[in-house]
C-alpha cells in the first residue's frame, strides 16, 4: 500500500523554481487502479516518478508497504524497483539492439536469475501478451502496439506488486490503444497488481475506479461511479 | 546478457567503434614502430661497438696518452736512393707502426685480469702497416749541341737533365695481433670464419694469418696464399667475415708475431675485459682505474656516447621526437576515445535511464559502458599491432643504411684499436661504419601495445562510465521525453 504524505518537489530552472508537486497527500491501496490526469506540466509524471522511486521528493514521505522510499539509500531503492515495481513508458523505451525476448530479460538481470530461467520466463511473458511468435524480433521490426506489449511483458515478467504506466497509449492510434488497454486491464485483474497510470485520454479515465487530477502540483482524487 | 548486449551495441555503432579503434590503433602502431626502430638503433649501435670490441667485451683498457706538442707525433719516414736509369728493380719499404703509439706492458693484462669483478682479460696489439713500393730513377744529363738563346753554359758546355723521376705506390693496411690462446674475447670474435680456419691455441708464434673477407677480396687472397709483412711471409689460413659493420682489422696474426714485427716485445695496445656481472661494469671500471694507474678504461656505454653520424641522429630522433610523438598521439587517441564514448553515453541517456528504472545498479550500467570501451580498445590494439608490425616489417625490408662515426675528434684509435681516450699526441682516426637499420618487434613491445590498448579502453570507459554512473533515472527519462 502507498502512503504519500506532504510530498513536495521543487526544481530549479534558471532563476525560477518550479513547484512540480506541492504538498501531495495520497493513499493507494493494494490492488487499486488509479488514473492520474491533468494538464501538461502539472506534475503527473513527477508524481509517477516518486511512486516508482525514480526520484526523491524535496520534502514529505513516499511510503510503500511501510518503507519510505524518499529516505532509502540508492542501492536499496534500486532493489525495490527491481523487485516490486514495473514501468511502462509512453515511448516504449526498448533497447533497439536487443530482441523482444532479450528486452524482457533485462528486467530479470538485476534479480540474478540464471540465463536459462530468464529466457523461459521472458518467453512466457511475451506469450501472455500475445507475442509468442515474436521472441526473436528486434523492436524496429515490430509495430508500436507490439513494442508496447513487449514493454508490458518486460514490466510484468518479474511479477511486481506495482505497475506504473506513463501515458502507455500516448504514441498509439485508437485501435492499438484499445488493444494495449485490454492487455493492461487483463493483467491488472489476473495478477492483482496495484496499477497507477498517467493519461490524457478521458475515455480511459472514465473506466478507472479512481481518478486523481493534478494541477500546479496540487492533487484532487475522485471516485468514479461509472467504472 | 552482458556479452549479448555488448556485441549488439558494438555492431550497431560500428562507425563510432571504428573511429575510436582507429585512433587507438594509430597511437599503438606508432608506439610499436618507434619502439622497434629504437630497438633496432640499439642493436645497430651494439653491432658497431661489437665490430670494434668483438662479442662479449664489456670494456677495454688502454694507456692514457701523455700530452705532446703538435707535430711531435711519430710519422713514418721512407728513404729511397735513386737508381740508375737502366735499372728496373722495384724498391719497397714497409713501416709497421703500433696503432696509436701508446702501449701497455703485457703484464698489465694479468693485472687487469686479477681485479675484482673481472671474468677475463685479453691483450691485443693493433698495428698499421704502410708499404711504399715503386721505382725512383736518376735523371740523365744530356750535353747540349750549340747552346741557344745566349744561355750561359756550364763547364764543359751546355746540357740538361732528362728522364728520371719516381713512381711509387702506397699500400696501407691494418694488422691485429690477437692472443690465440683466448679466442673468446677480442675483435676477431665479431667475425665469422667463412673459409679455412681460425688460429689454434698452439699457434702463439706461428707465421699464419687470418684475412678479413673484404681485404682478401680486394687483394685476391685465398686460403693457402701468402702475405708478406715487412719481409716476413705468412700463410693465409682463414677468411673472416664480420657479422656486421666493418672488420676490426685487415689481417689478424698471432700476438707474438705482431709484437716482433713492430719491435714491441711484451707490449699490447688494448686489453679486452669481460666482467663477471654485466650490471657491475661501472664498479669494475672504477676498480681498474683506481688500481692500475695511467690507464683509460672505456666501457661500451662510453664508446656509444662517441657514436655520431646518421645512426646517432636517427637514434636521437627515435628517442626524443619519436617518443614524444607517440605520447602525444596516444594521449590524443585516449582523449578522442574518451570523448566519443562519453558522447555515445549522452546519446543513450534514455536507454541507460530505462535500465536503471528496471533496477540495474549504476555499477552494472557502468560495467556495460566500460566493457564496450575496452573491446573497442582491444580492437584498436589488434589493428594497431597489425599496423605496427607492418610498419616494422617495412622498415626492416627497406633496411635504410645508417652511418655511424666513431670517436670523431675524440681521439679514438683506428681499426682494431678498440679503446680510446687519447690525447693530442695520439692518432685520432675517426671510423665510419655503415649499418643497416632493422626494426625488431619484441614480445615486450607487443605486451606494451596490449597494455596500451586496454588502458585506452579503460580511459575511454572511465569517461563514459563516469557519465553513466551519474545518470539519475528520472533525469534521464525527463530529458528525452
Describe the protein.
The complex is a heterodimer of chains A (227) and B (481). Chain A is built from seven helices and ten strands. By secondary structure, chain A is of the alpha/beta class. Chain A has a single domain (2-223), classed as Rossmann fold (3-Layer(aba) Sandwich), CATH 3.40.50. A six-stranded mixed beta sheet of chain A has the order 6-7-8-3-9-10. Chain A has a four-stranded antiparallel beta sheet with strand order 2-1-4-5. In chain A, a hairpin with a 2-residue loop joins β4 (59-64) and β5 (67-68). Chain A starts with a strand and ends with a strand. In chain B, strands 1, 2, 4, 7, 8, 9, 10, 11, 12, 14 and 15 form an eleven-stranded mixed beta sheet that branches. In chain B, strands 16-17-18 form a three-stranded antiparallel beta sheet. A two-stranded antiparallel sheet of chain B has the order 3-13. Chain B is an alpha+beta fold and 481 residues long. Chain B has two domains: 2-50 and 310-480, no CATH class; 65-80 and 91-137 and 167-293, no CATH class. Chain A binds chain B through residues 45, 49, 52, 54-55, 74-75, 78-79, 81-83, 87, 89-91, 93, 95-98, 102, 105-107, 109-111, 115, 118, 154, and chain B through 1, 4-5, 8-9, 11-12, 350-351, 353-362, 364, 472-474, 477-478, 481. Chain B: Residues 64-94, 138-164 are annotated as: Disordered.
Amino acid at each position: 500500500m502507498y502512503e504519500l504524505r506532504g510530498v513536495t518537489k521543487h526544481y530549479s530552472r534558471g532563476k525560477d523554481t518550479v513547484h512540480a508537486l506541492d504538498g501531495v497527500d495520497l493513499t493507494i491501496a493494494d490492488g487499486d487502479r488509479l488514473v492520474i490526469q491533468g494538464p501538461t506540466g502539472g506534475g503527473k509524471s513527477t508524481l509517477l516518478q516518486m511512486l516508482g522511486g525514480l526520484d526523491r521528493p524535496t520534502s514529505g514521505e513516499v511510503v510503500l508497504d511501510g518503507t519510505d522510499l524518499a529516505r532509502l539509500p540508492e542501492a536499496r531503492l534500486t532493489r525495490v524497483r527491481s523487485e516490486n515495481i514495473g514501468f511502462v513508458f509512453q515511448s516504449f523505451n526498448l533497447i533497439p539492439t536487443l530482441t523482444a525476448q532479450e528486452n524482457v530479460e533485462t528486467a530479470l538481470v538485476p534479480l540474478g536469475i540464471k540465463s536459462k530461467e530468464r529466457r523461459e520466463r521472458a518467453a512466457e511473458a511475451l506469450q501472455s501478451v500475445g507475442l509468442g511468435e515474436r521472441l526473436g524480433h528486434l523492436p524496429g521490426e515490430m509495430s508500436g502496439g507490439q513494442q508496447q506489449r513487449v514493454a508490458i511483458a518486460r514490466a510484468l515478467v518479474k511479477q511486481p506488486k506495482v505497475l506504473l504506466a506513463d501515458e502507455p497509449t500516448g504514441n498509439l492510434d485508437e485501435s492499438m490503444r484499445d488493444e494495449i488497454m485490454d492487455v493492461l486491464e487483463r493483467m491488472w485483474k489476473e495478477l492483482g497488481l496495484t496499477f497507477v497510470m498517467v493519461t490524457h485520454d478521458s475515455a480511459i479515465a472514465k473506466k478507472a475506479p479512481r481518478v486523481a487530477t493534478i494541477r500546479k502540483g496540487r492533487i484532487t482524487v475522485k471516485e468514479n461511479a461509472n467504472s | 546478457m552482458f556479452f549479448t548486449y555488448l556485441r549488439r551495441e558494438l555492431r550497431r555503432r560500428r562507425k563510432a567503434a571504428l573511429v575510436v579503434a582507429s585512433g587507438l590503433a594509430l597511437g599503438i602502431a606508432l608506439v610499436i614502430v618507434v619502439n622497434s626502430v629504437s630497438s633496432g638503433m640499439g642493436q645497430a649501435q651494439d653491432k658497431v661497438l661489437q665490430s670494434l670490441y668483438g662479442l662479449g667485451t664489456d670494456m677495454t683498457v688502454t694507456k692514457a696518452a701523455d700530452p705532446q706538442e703538435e707535430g711531435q707525433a711519430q710519422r713514418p719516414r721512407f728513404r729511397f736512393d735513386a737508381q740508375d736509369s737502366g735499372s728496373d728493380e722495384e724498391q719497397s719499404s714497409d713501416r709497421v707502426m703500433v696503432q696509436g703509439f701508446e702501449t701497455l706492458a703485457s703484464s698489465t693484462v694479468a693485472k687487469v685480469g686479477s681485479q675484482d669483478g673481472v671474468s677475463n682479460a685479453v691483450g691485443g696489439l693493433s698495428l698499421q702497416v704502410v708499404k711504399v713500393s715503386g721505382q725512383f730513377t736518376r735523371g740523365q744529363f744530356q750535353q747540349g749541341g750549340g747552346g741557344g738563346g745566349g744561355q750561359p753554359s756550364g763547364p764543359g758546355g751546355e746540357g740538361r737533365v732528362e728522364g728520371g723521376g719516381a713512381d711509387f705506390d702506397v699500400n696501407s693496411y691494418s694488422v691485429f695481433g690477437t692472443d690465440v690462446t683466448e679466442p673468446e674475447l677480442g675483435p676477431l670474435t665479431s667475425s665469422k670464419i667463412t673459409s679455412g680456419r681460425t688460429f689454434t691455441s698452439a699457434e702463439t708464434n706461428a707465421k699464419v694469418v687470418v684475412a678479413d673477407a673484404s681485404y682478401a677480396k680486394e687483394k685476391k687472397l685465398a686460403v693457402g696464399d701468402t702475405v708478406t709483412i715487412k719481409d716476413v711471409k705468412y700463410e693465409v689460413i682463414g677468411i673472416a667475415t664480420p657479422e656486421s659493420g666493418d672488420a676490426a682489422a685487415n689481417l689478424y696474426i698471432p700476438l707474438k708475431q705482431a709484437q716482433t714485427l713492430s719491435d714491441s716485445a711484451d707490449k699490447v695496445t688494448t686489453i679486452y675485459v669481460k666482467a663477471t656481472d654485466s650490471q657491475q661494469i661501472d664498479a669494475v671500471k672504477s676498480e681498474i682505474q683506481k688500481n692500475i694507474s695511467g690507464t683509460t678504461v672505456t666501457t661500451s656505454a662510453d664508446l656509444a656516447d662517441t657514436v655520431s653520424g646518421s645512426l646517432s641522429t636517427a637514434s636521437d630522433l627515435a628517442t626524443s621526437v619519436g617518443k614524444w610523438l607517440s605520447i602525444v598521439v596516444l594521449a590524443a587517441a585516449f582523449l578522442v576515445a574518451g570523448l566519443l564514448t562519453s558522447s555515445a553515453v549522452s546519446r543513450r541517456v534514455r536507454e541507460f535511464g530505462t535500465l536503471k528504472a528496471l533496477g540495474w545498479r549504476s555499477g552494472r550500467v557502468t560495467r556495460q559502458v566500460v566493457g564496450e570501451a575496452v573491446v573497442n580498445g582491444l580492437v584498436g590494439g589488434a589493428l594497431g599491432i597489425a599496423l605496427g608490425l607492418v610498419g616494422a616489417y617495412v622498415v626492416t625490408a627497406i633496411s635504410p643504411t645508417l652511418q655511424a662515426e666513431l670517436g670523431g675528434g675524440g681521439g679514438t684509435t683506428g681499426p682494431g684499436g678498440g679503446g680510446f681516450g687519447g690525447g693530442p699526441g695520439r692518432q685520432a682516426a675517426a671510423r665510419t661504419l655503415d649499418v643497416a637499420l632493422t626494426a625488431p618487434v619484441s614480445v615486450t613491445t607487443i605486451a606494451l601495445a596490449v597494455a596500451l590498448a586496454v588502458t585506452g579502453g579503460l580511459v575511454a570507459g572511465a569517461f563514459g562510465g563516469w557519465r553513466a554512473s551519474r545518470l539519475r533515472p528520472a533525469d534521464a527519462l525527463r530529458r528525452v521525453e
